[in-house]
Design goal:
With 99 residues, this protein is an all-alpha fold. It is built from four helices and no strands. Bound molecules: zinc ion (ZN).
Amino acid sequence: MAKRATRRASNGTMNHRHGQDRGRCLRILRKLSAYLDDELSDTICGEIRRHLGACPNCEDFVASLRQTVALCRHKPVPPLLAGDRARMREAILLAARSR
Ligand SMILES: [Zn+2]
């Protein structure tokens, strides 16, 4: 019988099986904003923490997200003036229409 070609796994980039976790990554990412606000149940928090421990990509993402959230919290957002709000809404509608 023909010998199966030996797979070279020497570069080691796939050794944490991230491919299998892709779906989980997406699911986790969707929950992350709530996680940062401490609005999730302990079970889900545990799931996220476990995933972050095993997945450098998501861990990086959370680190930068957390920084952004912290920055936002420290800077109170000035209330929008009615005129600004109307102008923004128009710009958004315009952008949406041009797609
Ligand atoms: Zn991940």
